[in-house]
Design brief:
Blueprint: E1 6-9, H1 15-24, E2 29-32, H2 36-43, E3 48-49, H3 53-58, E4 62-65, H4 70-78, H5 83-86, E5 92-95, H6 101-113, E6 117-120, E7 123-124, H7 126-132, E8 135-140, H8 143-154, E9 157-164, H9 168-196, H10 201-209, H11 216-226, H12 238-254, H13 260-274, H14 286-293
The structure holds nicotinamide-adenine-dinucleotide.
Nicotinamide-adenine-dinucleotide is lined by residues 9-15, 32-35, 38, 53, 66-69, 72, 75-76, 97-98, 123-124, 126-127, 236-237, 240.
């Protein structure tokens, strides 16, 4: 069967790898990003360049967006020069960004007016998962539509779940981010406390990894970012995690649900942003505590 033509908007930390994997899987790709550098990189691998999201949408059957937050998604899809300006009726729009569920529902409604079908399909697994095409993808929208496009998602991810109607993919992602954000503050506080009390960070890592305090973040963020002190390598921007916790709090406010720990974690990341750490990987939140107690958690993972 002939593979569908795909447009890809947003070639950042995640989208860059995801677009590469689609090319590797043999898809005819047309790409767009406000930043010309990643566009050049992906075009060098065989993709075509579009000067706007509308231009990309005009020439493809499926268009994927991987953008930072609600505002960028609305602008790239609904704004002037956006996806809906160029898309033909029957085009399928798959938004893989992490945004508010109500924004997905709104965008899907606008898309429907033009005959464009919509799936929300946010991902988890970080830049490593994007690079290795092992992302977990949580999809909201029509199940048959998903079935027809699963092969495309499989070029970028390993585990694909249909979780409900439009907006439900984003809802599940929001829950994941809430847990991740709180987990990271726990790791950071524990490591700083242990190190300040005189335990070598290497020992803390080795023992906790084999104990009940272990987690996915312990295994990935501690050796690669915290122990090396290299928070500027490609990762998940602290500002984006703060955005995700903000989405959970906004949703909790509307639905009158108390989220105590999420509120505290949100303040942690907001303080970190105020201290200029927002563009660094989320694990740079440890720098706040390190500075305040005069200790650095650096080490080597065995
Ligand atoms: P990023 O900021 O690195 O990349 C976003 C890209 O979108 C940039 O290249 C930017 O130039 C481009 N862009 C912004 N507005 C645009 C517009 N209007 N038109 C065209 N291009 C535009 O972000 P990222 O880390 O790749 O994350 C993308 C999304 O995936 C976010 O919602 C994030 O929360 C989510 N996410 C990120 C990770 C991660 O580890 N980085 C993991 C899972 C999910």
């Amino acid at each position: 069967m002939v593979k569908k033509k795909i447009g890809f908007i947003g070639l950042g930390a995640m989208g860059n790898y995801m677009a590469r994997n689609l090319i590797k899987a043999g898809y005819d790709l047309t790409v767009h990003d406000l930043n010309s550098q990643p566009v050049k990189e992906i075009v060098a691998l065989g993709a075509k360049e579009a000067k706007s999201s509308a231009e990309a949408a005009k020439v493809v059957e499926v268009i994927i967006t991987m953008l930072p937050a609600d505002e960028e998604v609305k602008s790239a899809i609904l704004g002037p020069g956006g996806v809906l300006e160029g898309a033909q009726a029957g085009t399928v729009l798959i938004d893989m960004s992490s945004i508010a569920p109500h924004t997905s529902i709104f965008v899907a409604g606008e898309a429907k007016k033009k005959g464009v079908k919509f799936l929300d399909a946010p991902v988890s697994g970080g830049t490593i998962g994007a690079e290795k095409a092992t992302l977990t993808i949580m999809v909201g929208g029509d199940k048959t539509l998903l079935d027809e496009h699963t092969e495309i998602l499989q070029a970028m991810g390993k585990t694909i779940y249909h979780v409900g109607d439009v907006g439900m993919g984003e809802t599940v992602k929001m829950v994941n981010q809430l847990m991740l954000g709180i987990n990271l503050t726990g790791i950071v506080e524990g490591l700083v406390l242990g190190t300040k009390l005189g335990v070598a960070p290497d020992i803390l890592y080795k023992v906790i990894r084999a104990s009940s305090g272990n987690s996915f973040l312990m295994e990935h963020r501690v050796p690669n970012y915290i122990f090396t002190g290299n928070f500027t390598q490609p990762g998940f921007a602290l500002d984006l995690l703060r955005k995700d916790l903000g989405l959970a709090l906004e949703s909790a406010k509307v639905n009158k649900i108390p989220l105590f720990m999420t509120g505290l974690a949100y303040q942690y990341y907001t303080r970190a942003t105020a201290e200029g750490l927002g563009k660094k990987d989320m694990s740079a939140v440890i720098e706040l505590l390190e500075k305040s107690v005069g200790v650095e958690v650096r080490g080597k993972a065995e």
